[in-house]
Amino acid sequence: MITCLTGAATAQQRAVVQGRVVEFGTRNGIPADITVPRVGRVVAGGNGEFRLPDVPVGLHVVTVTALGYQTREVQLDVKGDTAVFIELEVAPVRVDSIVVRSRTITVRGHVFELATGKPVIDAEATIGARMDRTNFAGNFKVTRVPGGAPVTVEVGAVALFPAQLIITADRDTTIRVGLRPDSVGQAMLDAAVKKIEERSRAVQMTRDQWDREELMRFPRTIEQLLLQRYGRRVVPTCLFVNDINMTIGGAELLASYITDELERVEVFGRGSMVRLYTRRFAARKSGTTPLPPILMVLGMPGGALCR
């Protein structure tokens, strides 16, 4: 499925094309390659978000590719800033019964916290040069792994000690990996979240906020969470994901995120500005480098100034 939202064109007839690539049926974000001929190529983040900031107005063919998924070509008539939401289907396994090839296997796995048994979301599972991230259920899939030879599986996640194991399998196999809490990593994450919270206090607007522990009580999309909180569908004037301006996506983007994959949600002015932070992003902000200030000025040409 492809969903497009289009805003006004700029005076220079250039536009921003941004959005999210997700897996069909699960809505898991996919770190896909997005290519636009004569414009450029960008790699989507781990949650599938991408942004092409300087696209000429006109007709373009966008090619979206990702390992393990069917390639898609999307024709876009860019008339102004545009948000695109693209679902990719898992690629079928091709069987060649004539040509003999080096045997490869698929390694699937489930990552969980040893202390609680809960699935770990967005953990990185790496086998050689191939990597996958766990989905909402804590599951990953790494394809084209050499079969019949020892391979090292490395699994890591924020605020948890990494695990490493060696497996040898002649056929597709499934493993379970338990990760232990890392108190130092958790303390660094807590410090980062506190720094994000302190920044939000400087904004002269009413504020609602949910951290991970509170978000885990609401197994639903962010759109549904805000609907429950405010009794209406929230269409933010300014929307940020990991400090990246994704305003064009609006409520459609809110519907693509579930509470389990986020570390913190901030809402200002009862929905005027919404800011989403993933666990991985928050962990990277634990250092001493100050965060850029939050700014939202209403009444500007075009509606609002957000950053």
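Next protein, fold it too.
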Amino acid sequence: MGEREPIDLGQLDPPRWRVLVKNVAYGPYTLGQIKAFIAEGRVSLNSKLADGDGAPFQQAADIALLGREFEAKATKARATATETPIPQNYLIVCRLSQTPEARFVSAMNTLGNFGEAMPSVYLLRSTLKLAAVQQRLREIVSDSDQVVIVNATMNRLGWFNLGMEADVHVRSIWDKPVGNTGDAD
């Protein structure tokens, strides 16, 4: 076997990118380095970049080649915003009048581990935050279906489609201080 020439990585990804920060140009950087800077948050959509020596600086948002990197970063940020490192325990009560139960159960299956404790009452263990669980269920049920979600781990409550009167009533009692009810021990 003959000897092979080593691959010159500088030819595959040449350092040609420059970053403008406070009127000072830094670089040159490789495209791989620029992508890493985006992932780290060191280059944002508003950053000024030039692709090549002497090329004009433009906003990173306007460079099509970097679009996929910014979308990946945004997707990761959305996931982080909707997830929590500590698994959460939820109690979900629903009154489905229009949405087929099979569709609701299918949606629950995407949220985490769940089981039906009794008809229309579900237990869910998930790494999703309450707002994410609420949003995902809201996307699949009709406007006439009612859902109450209790995050038992964080003592939080979410709901939708209860109607104005029930909405006001729930808000008035959920965080209300508990006073003397007059019951004897």
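About the second fold: The chain is about 35% helix and 30% strand.
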